[in-house]
Amino acid sequence: MTMTSPIASPLTENDRWLLSFYRSSEIDGAVFFGKVAETVRSGRLGADVAQHFADEAKHAAIWTRCLLDLDVEPLRIRRSYQSQYFDAVGAPANLMEILAITQVFEKRVIGQYRRQLHHAATHPRVRAALDEIMDDERWHLQYVRRALGAMRERHGAERVATTLGRYARADEEVYARTLAEYGDRMAFLEDDLPTGSRNRS
Ligand SMILES: [Fe+2]
Ligand SMILES: [Fe+2]
Fold first, then answer.
1. How far is the CA of 101 from the centre of ligand 1 (A)?
2. Is CATH 1.10.260.40 correct for 13-188?
3. What is the per-residue pLDDT across 44-75, written as a single tens digit (0 to 9) for each?
4. How far is the CA of 40 from the centre of ligand 1 (A)?
5. Which ligand has the shortest distance to the CA of 132?
């Protein structure tokens, strides 16, 4: 990987939208996990969930700082990515479902952030923010996978697998819709974009 982009290159309106979208999604994640932390209080999982809450709030601050450093105000984002999950499959009803939807979401986040991190045209300041966030996101996936594994005893492996499958399908649906609507704002995903959504601007 080479770092050829000049530091001074300006942020495009699409970049501004995308960073605002990330910021809003991290805020939603923090608010959601703040609520989970109120109910899951004990043991290692209680500590992990509280850490998760703190991490997502920190990520929202990282994106806000990144936008400030690049001299642009965050845009108001109407609907976060996560809220579209709940519209598609309903809000999770128990801790197992919360962990399942979180595993699916964190995988999506890591995939998206990783692709942007490794794209040659990504602004160096944005790359620095992604670098700062990635380790936390990887840890989120790890602890959620572990906790969900432990839930198989109580809920049954089949039910956990079915729940994960249901959320994975919802994620595919929401992601496809997001790409169709906003894909042209994410040049680093150009190989994935449906034809017809590329040349809006
Ligand atoms: Fe995050
Ligand atoms: Fe996360």
1. 14
2. no
3. 999 999 999 999 999 999 999 999 999 999 99
4. 19
5. 1
